[in-house]
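Subject: Protein record for review, amino acid sequence with backbone structure tokens
How to read it: Take the token row as a discrete description of the fold.
Enclosed: The protein record, placed directly beneath this head.
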Amino acid sequence: KGEKVAFCKDETELDSINAKLIGDYAENGDEFAKSIYAESGRRLGQGLSILIDLLNPEAIIIGSIFTRSRELLWDECKKVIDKEALPMAAEVCKVLTSALGENIGDYAALSLALMAAEQ
């Protein structure tokens, strides 16, 4: 059996766990929640490093959870990019939050619906 964590006291609360809840706990200093975001930041950094190496973009724009929780993700993400991405490519690539914020998924869904309606 695993350890109990503040954001999930028993199995009846499993369905209520989401990134926002864990983010709230992390922002309030919960060490386990902070470790989840640190690992997520490292994994994001790995994925972004691959994109930076393959595409050599000037910018990568991320919405949704990155917009809401950049401060929890970015330090670890940046460490991995600095370590794994090609230095010259990483130097020119900015990782930015989306101006659409957390509504990016809504806009994407509406765009798909509009495209389908036009066909």
About this structure: Strands lie at 59-62, 94-97.
